[in-house]
Design goal:
This protein has about 130 residues and is of the alpha+beta class. It is built from 3 helices and 8 strands. The radius of gyration is 14 Å and the shape is globular.
């Protein structure tokens, strides 16, 4: 039984990037799909699709690399965990790595990057950071 599916998603992406896989497959959930959509909007992954695999759905995340094969995702980590939730108000949001990274938040308006949440003036649960 998986206790933290978001950590599993981030670990699969991290491991896929380190071994330079073109894509990673993750068991599907709407929250995972929303996190990947936020990463796609900010340019950290190419795209994603839902693939039927037997009798269950799989989220296929197409990873992104630079023109010379360099990793677009240098670091990805879980912040808010099941045992220790972390929330952030809009006035507490700061740039990640001088603006080269993002935080992904779960807000009342869906899963957004810190840039999108700041523009909309809302805070939320800080799910992960990526740079």
């Amino acid at each position: 039984m998986m206790t933290d599916p978001i950590a599993d998603l981030l670990t699969r992406i991290r491991n896929g990037v380190h071994v330079e896989r073109p894509f990673v497959d993750v068991p599907f959930s709407r929250l995972k799909a929303a996190i990947v959509e936020a990463l796609q909007r900010e340019g950290f992954v190419w795209d994603h699709e839902v693939v039927e695999s037997g009798n269950h759905r799989v989220l296929r995340v197409n990873l992104k690399y630079g023109p010379n094969g360099e990793h677009v995702i240098q670091h990805i980590e879980r912040i808010s965990k099941p045992g220790c939730r972390v929330y952030m108000a809009v006035n507490e949001m700061k740039d990640i790595r001088q603006g080269t990274g993002i935080s992904v938040l779960s807000t009342s308006r869906g899963v957004l990057s810190n840039r999108e949440a700041r523009r909309q003036g809302i805070g939320g649960e800080l799910l992960c950071q990526v740079w």
